[in-house]
Write a structure and sequence with these properties.
The protein contains ten helices and nine strands. It is α/β, with parallel strands linked by helices.
């Protein structure tokens, strides 16, 4: 049961800025083999999906920056986890010693091979074999991260630094809280991305009328933690956009605001491209930027 190709890499004719886009959770290729294994139907499995996020940021290549998007669904294999975050209770055979079986994500049922969908429903009616998880990691997780690592390496080699914007969406219930957030930016509490870039993106989105929160409740996943090395010139910032802003969540369809939200994300990207070209690895001086 191989999902081929595991990702789509949309490259610009010429990369013009030290900026890379990722969308690790927007994949929606639910193959027959997966559906045969699962106790849930395809519609229920989609509750873990960041639907259409790669489309919201599709302007990236036309602006001169690459966009890496997973084709495989998050419920099949989660590219924003360590490669071996696995729940031993899901498997009929033993796991190797190198598996991380005690992470908070595994405990929540959302490891590299998830036990539940976002709504909390169990995906499988019977236990899997470790060989099944290994196949998913080898054919989906590894190629995705090999491509991302190469993009970062090439960008650093060309520009001397790299800013990765890791694009996600979040379910509406968060947006219905008293202090409603339209966007949550995750920079690992300042460990994966310099404050200047987080401040810049927060100000840009706030200027578009969005209510932005930082690191609450999403501080970033494996991609931010693993690749974010600000002192080495690699910044990684996770962006979570409320799904109510662009889609009909129950129907998994684009909503009436989709076009407007897509345009706003394109505006954000255009501003980021300009800022990255102007300010370089250190990030924008917000006082100087405000004075211009």
């Amino acid at each position: 049961m191989i999902i081929d190709p595991p990702f789509t890499l949309s490259q610009p004719a010429r990369q013009c800025a030290a900026l890379v886009l990722t969308s690790p959770h927007s994949g929606r290729r639910y193959n027959a083999g997966f559906l045969a294994q699962a106790r849930l139907d395809a519609q229920s499995l989609r509750r873990s999906e960041d639907s259409f996020v790669e489309e919201l940021f599709a302007a990236g290549p036309s602006l001169g920056i690459p966009l890496l998007a997973a084709e495989f669904p998050r419920a099949w294999c989660d590219a924003n986890r360590e490669p071996w975050e696995l729940d031993p209770a899901m498997f009929c055979d033993s796991l190797p010693d190198y598996a991380n079986t005690t992470s908070p994500r595994v405990a929540a049922g959302l490891g590299t091979v998830a036990r539940i969908v976002g709504a909390g429903e169990a995906i499988y009616g019977k236990k899997l074999r470790f060989a099944d998880a290994k196949s998913r990691i080898d054919t989906c997780w590894r190629p995705f991260h090999e491509a991302l690592a190469q993009l970062i390496e090439d960008t650093v080699a060309r520009f001397g630094h790299c800013l990765v914007l890791d694009c996600h969406s979040m379910p509406t219930p968060l947006g219905r809280m008293a202090a409603r957030a339209d966007v949550v930016l995750g920079d690992g509490h300042g460990t994966s991305c310099g404050a200047a870039w987080s401040d810049f993106v927060e100000a840009a989105l706030g200027g578009q009328g969005y209510h932005v929160r930082r690191n609450d409740p999403y501080a970033g996943g494996f991609i931010t933690r693993h690749y974010g090395r600000p002192r080495e010139g690699v910044q990684v910032l996770q962006l979570e956009l409320a799904r109510s802003l662009y889609m009909q969540e129950r129907q998994f369809t684009r909503g009436p605001q989709f076009g407007a939200t897509q345009e706003r994300m394109s505006t954000l990207l255009a501003g980021l491209v300009e800022a990255v070209q102007l300010w370089g690895a250190a990030g924008p001086d917000m006082r100087a930027a405000a004075a211009e």
